[in-house]
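Chapter review: from sequence to fold.
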Amino acid sequence: QEEQMQKITLKKIDETNFLSAFGLKLRAGQERFVSHPVRSLAQAYVYYHQCTPFGIFCDEQMVGYVMVIYDYDLAEYDIWHMMIDKDRQGLGYGTAALQRCLEYIAKKPFGNSDRVVLTCHWENGAALALYRKFGFAETGNADDEEIELAMRVNH
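The token string follows.
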């Protein structure tokens, strides 16, 4: 498991790998939990000055997708649209990818902040458990489907 974690890297989505991102699939019923990378990449293009879309790689194989955003208005980092391909779920890739996201944010690529925020569908128990394991806690903000969670990172 530990060795598997070491193999997980984030690589910026670019012209060499975006088609692999389009090929990622969610399990039936997961579409309501997370946007597909096609939609997320459209947002990334629009907000390019404040976000980085990443492929989640195991060795040379893209196994998932995630986007890190900096919210200048709130001076906080947001993790959006993290997903692991349906055939690769349950192998610890999500845990490793979240760790890599937090390592990237710790470098403060867009601006200074010690606050990291994400939202999660309230029925997505696996993701909620993962986020809580890392120290994310509910902020009390929510809409119809998504719960907001936040944590502080001090470096």
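Two observations follow directly from the output. The first helix runs from residue 2 to 7. The two ends are 26 Å apart (CA to CA).
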